[in-house]
Amino acid sequence: MQGNFTFYILIALVVGYLAYYFIWRQKEAKKLQEWLDQHPNAVKVYTKGKISLIGSGTLTIIDVDGEQPKQFTEGLKGGFYVLPGTHVVYSQYQKQRASLVYKSVTTTYDATKQEIEVEAGKTYLYSFDEKEAEYKFEEIDDHQA
Question: How many angstroms separate the CA atoms of 25 and 28, rounded?
Answer without folding.
Answer: 5
